[in-house]
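Exercise 7. Given the encoded structure of a 139-residue chain, write a plausible sequence.
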C-alpha cells in the first residue's frame, strides 16, 4: 500500500446532508402540490437522508467504503463494510475543493461509479493534500 484513505465520521457531511434534505422538505411543504405527491415524496426525502447518513457519515451500511488505497502500480483498491475488496480506477471527474472532495471510482462489472465523499474533517490534512496533488497529476 502506498496511499491509504480511511474516512472517519464527519460532522461537516452530517451538516451538509441535513441542509440538503431539510431544504428539499421545505420546498416540498411550501409548494401547493396535490396531497398524494406530498405523501410520496416526503417519506422519500426522509429515507434518502437516513440512507445518506448510514452510508456516508456513520459507515454502517454494508456498501459503505471503509478503506481505500492506491497500489504501487497506480490502481486503487476499495474495501466495503461487508469485507468485500475490489480494484477500481479513480475517475477524472472526481470533484475537489478545499473543504470537500467527491472521489468517483469505476469498478469493473458495475454500471455506476462508487462515490466516496470526503469533507475536511473526514480525513487528515495530509490525505487531502496528497489527493489534490494526485488529481492534479492525472489531469
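Solution.
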Amino acid at each position: 500500500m502506498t496511499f491509504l484513505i480511511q474516512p472517519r465520521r464527519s460532522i461537516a457531511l452530517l451538516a451538509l446532508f441535513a441542509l440538503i434534505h431539510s431544504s428539499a422538505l421545505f420546498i416540498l411543504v411550501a409548494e401547493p402540490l396535490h396531497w398524494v405527491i406530498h405523501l410520496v415524496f416526503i417519506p422519500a426525502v426522509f429515507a434518502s437522508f437516513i440512507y445518506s447518513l448510514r452510508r456516508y457519515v456513520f459507515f454502517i451500511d454494508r456498501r459503505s467504503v471503509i478503506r481505500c488505497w492506491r497500489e504501487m502500480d497506480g490502481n486503487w483498491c476499495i474495501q466495503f463494510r461487508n469485507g468485500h475488496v475490489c480494484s477500481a480506477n479513480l475517475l477524472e471527474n472526481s470533484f475537489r475543493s478545499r473543504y470537500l472532495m467527491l472521489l468517483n471510482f469505476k469498478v469493473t462489472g458495475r454500471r455506476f461509479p462508487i462515490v466516496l465523499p470526503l469533507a475536511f474533517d473526514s480525513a487528515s490534512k495530509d490525505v487531502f493534500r496528497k489527493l489534490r496533488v494526485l488529481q492534479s497529476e492525472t489531469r
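Remark. The chain has three helices and seven strands. Students should compare their own answers with the one above.
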